[in-house]
Structures are given as C-alpha cells and as structure tokens.
Design goal:
heterodimer, A: about 120 residues, mainly beta, three-stranded antiparallel β-sheet, about 15% helix, B: about 160 residues, elongated, HTH_TetR (chain B)
Chain lengths: ~120, ~160
C-alpha cells in the first residue's frame, strides 16, 4: 500500500510507501515530475499480466509484487498485494520507469487526483 | 514514445467506443478494453495514457465522425417536422449510439473535459435545428435528447437507433 499525492508547488507526483512496503520495494518514496505523468487508471486486471524479470524488489506470486521489473523492454515499478486496489500510472519520457502499478487505499480518489493534475490536451 | 505502434489505433478507438456506449465508463474495465480491442494492455497504456484519456479520445472521435456529419445533414433540412425526425433518428447514433448521452449522464458531472465535449455536441444539435426551428431550436434539441433517452430505455430495442 502506498499514498499517492500531488505536490503542486514542486510539480511532482509523490508515492509514499507505507510500513513494510518500504522493505518490499526497497524504497520509501518515489518522486515523478508531473510533466512526465500521462494518466492514472484503476485496473484490478493489471495484476494478472506477466511481471517479467525482477530487477530489484520482492516477488511472491499471488502474494506480493513489489519493486522494479522489466517486461517487453519496459521498466515497471510495482507495489501490489491486493489487485482490486491497483492503480496504473503511465509515465512519459521517464528516466526511471515507464509505468507504476501501485496499490492505494482509495483507487477512485487517487485516479481523480492524478487525472485532474495532468492535462490531456 | 517514438516506438512504432504495433496496432491500429483507429480500430481500437472504434472497439472502445462500442464498449463505452453499451456499458458506460465505469462499467467498462481495462480487461474489457484489452479483450475487445485485441491490444496488449501495455500498448493501450502507452498509446492512450489512461482509461479516462482513451474515453476522451473516443468521445472526440464520436463528435467528429458521428455527431458532426449528422448535424450537418440536419442543418440542410428546412421543413420543421422533417428536421426533427431526422435528428431523432440520426443524432448520437452509429456503432457507438448513445455514447454522448451516456457521457452526459455519467461522466460530465465529474469531469469538466467530458462536460465540454458534451456541450459541444449539444450546441451542434441546437445549431443544426436553427434553420428549421429558429429560436425554438434549444427546446427542440432537448426534445431530441429526451426522445433518444426514452428510445434507449426501451428493453429489446434494436441494435441501431
């Protein structure tokens, strides 16, 4: 579980990992420039996708997927135990990741927050 | 971003439009979109960014390729009864019939970008009815929307119109 927030002053999307998720993901926090965020989607089915190769983190299939993965040439960051609450955040021109898959407490609110913060056109 | 797209984005938009029109925005999952478009989940995200962004693209496409041609045809009619009948039969129709109506009811109250696209579609209808109905065009536009809604509410309605 993580807390996703928008830091408007610094123009950042922040992901704060809660409790033991800091351990599983090897990270306490991610910061992504808002200009690199393309959108957010509540996507419980994402967890059934092939995870690819674990680069750094933790993967107990069916229990937890956390940390950095490579799949089809893309770099994904996962932090999901409960797929029902998984939110996919698509990134552009990112130095670090192409896509984040993060479990949050309230997917609907998180998606609305991120989608409001990024303008599509 | 510069990688070539391994699928036809227009085809994916058409398939997504039919889903959104049949099941609404919330009723259409990414799983549904992946299945109906035949596009890999990763590619869907890479091309459209998010489900909301795909929905906005689908709405824009519906406005340009269904609503606009229909309203242009209605605007060419000067007989009031004929224009009204044509509007009821053809407005917000096609393979994704009702997409605009559904977006108006479901998403527009929560999403200013959807609300703007819906307003654009409704304004196009009002403008199209002006040559035949003059100042009463906005009222007649509401009649058209209401009638389309009542037609949609009928069980066992035919697939089109």
């Amino acid at each position: 579980m993580a807390l996703i927030d928008i830091d408007r002053e610094r123009g950042l999307l922040t992901v704060e990992f809660q409790g033991l998720d800091k351990l599983w993901t090897f990270k306490s926090r991610l910061e992504i420039p808002l200009a690199h965020v393309r959108g957010a989607t509540h996507d419980p089915g994402m967890a059934r996708e092939p995870k690819g190769i674990r680069v750094g983190g933790t993967h107990f299939p069916g229990v937890i997927t956390a940390g950095r993965f490579r799949h089809d040439g893309e770099r994904l960051f996962w932090d999901v135990k409960n797929p029902d609450k998984a939110v996919v955040i698509e990134l552009a021109d990112a130095e670090t990741y192409d896509r984040l898959v993060i479990e949050v407490d309230d997917p609907r609110a998180t998606v609305a927050l991120v989608e409001q913060a990024v303008s599509h056109r | 971003m510069g990688r070539p797209r391994a699928f036809d984005a227009d085809q994916a938009i058409t398939a997504a439009a039919a889903l959104f029109a049949a099941h609404g925005y919330e009723g259409t999952s990414v799983d549904d979109l992946v299945t109906a478009t035949g596009v890999h989940r990763g590619s869907l995200y890479k091309v459209f960014g998010s489900k909301r962004s795909l929905h906005l693209t689908v709405l824009r496409n519906h406005l340009d390729h269904e609503i606009r041609p229909a309203t242009a045809a209605i605007a060419g009619l000067t007989d009031p009864a004929q224009a009204l009948a044509a509007a009821i039969a053809s407005y917000d129709s096609g393979p994704a019939a009702g997409l605009l109506l559904l977006a108006a009811a479901e998403r527009a109250p929560h999403d200013p970008e959807v609300a703007a696209l819906v307003a654009e579609g409704v304004t196009a209808l009002e403008d199209a009815l002006r040559p035949s109905h003059g100042d009463a065009a906005p009222q007649l536009a509401s009649t058209v929307l209401g009638t389309r809604l009542r037609l949609r509410a009928q069980p066992h309605r035919s697939k089109e119109n």
